[in-house]
Each structure stands twice: as structure tokens, then as C-alpha cells.
Amino acid sequence: MSGSAKPKAVVLLSGGLDSAVTLAMAAAEGFEPHALTVRYGQRHAAEIAAAERVARRHGVAGHDVVDVDLAAFGGSALTGAGEVPKDRGAAAIAAGIPVTYVPARNTVFLALALARAETLGARHIFLGVNALDYSGYPDCRPEFVAAFERLANLATKAGVEAARDGQPQIRLHAPLIAMTKAEIVGKGAELGVDFASTLSCYDPRPVRSDKGARHCGRCDACQLRKKGFAEAGVVDPTDYEA
Questions:
Q1: What is the pTM of this model?
Q2: Exposed, middle or buried, 59 (CB in 10 Å: 0-12/13-18/19+)?
Q3: What are the structural domain ranges in the chain?
């Protein structure tokens, strides 16, 4: 990026491995990252603490934590009392949309990021969705990202005025979209991501005072995380229960 001032970017930061790598990539590409984390009614607060650790580690320009209670609607094992799937094989993980899908979550998150971007004067939004090693979520697909980018430029003052004046429009960046989990881990290692600070687990064990929450080691997210480190040949610092 040229010029003395870095362009601002809003980075959706869940505290998970993927969002931490996305944040590191945004910074490496010359953006001034402003992290946005959503407390959406998830069953545990451990990922909020993880997001705060990651934000501090990477020295973001700002970190907003916004409350939107998606648990009020239910419909997901992550916001309700339903069982989180455990010990599923790769074929089962890749088949269908799992009960851990939170209805319209990424649509809501991106709408919030878009609003924050407008108030900051930012034209860039980063999100860590992935369409290869992922658990069947419809809002992690390239078609979704492209559609929301079109909406962002139609639905905002910034987008309309940019089109009118021939200025750069709002861009959605999904740098992990076509990467395997192993490639994501490798990229994170290259950029110095502190993987031990991140939390991927859908059903973490109780928070401990020294190291945060412990990964269950058996949910879909933990299995994909383990697979990524193993295939990348990177030492996995994660504390798993199993």
C-alpha cells in the first residue's frame, strides 16, 4: 500500500484460528485493522476472551465488542441447549448443514461490520470464512461473499457516493475462502499468529485462570483444527481434553 496513512479495514474477529489469521493477513497487507467481535448469545464467553487476547497480540487500532442476542431466536446448538456433534468422521462433517449453524449469523455480522466501516470511513471489510475445510455453512461460500459486497455498495451512503464519484467502492476480503485448513495454519505460522491464544472449539471446557478455555478435542471444529496442524507440519499448541 502506498501513502503515509494506512487504509482502514474492519476485521470480524471471533477469536478463532481463522479470524486470527485473517487479522494478521490484513495487517501484513498494509491495512490499519479495526477488530469487531459479536457477543451473539453463544453458550460460552470463552471466545470473546480469545478475541480480546488476539486483538491485543496484534495491536489493532480498535476493538469493538457488540451485543446482538441471536440466542433469542434459537435454531442452533451454539446458542441453545442442543448437543454439539462429537467424534464425526470427515465424510459426516462435510455432509449437509450441521446443527451448529447459527441462522443468518454471517449476514448479521457483516451488516454490523458494514455499519462500523461507514462510521470509520473504511472501505474494506475482512472476514475469515472458508469454503474448503468447513462444516457445510451456506454463509461461508464465495457466492455469499460476492452477493454481500454488491449489497454493501447498494445499501450505503459510502457505496452510492463512491459509484457516483468514480471512487473505490466497499470491498469484502475473504482471504481464506479457497485455502485448506493446513494452508491457513501455515500462513498463520508465517505471520507469527499466536495459535495458543485462539479458540476454535464448539464446546470448550471451563475457563482456567492461566490459559483460558480448553478445547474439547472432539467437535467438528476441533477435528478440523487438529487436521490442519498435522497436515501443515506445524506444532499444535492447543490444549485438548481429548
A1: 0.94
A2: exposed
A3: 8-232
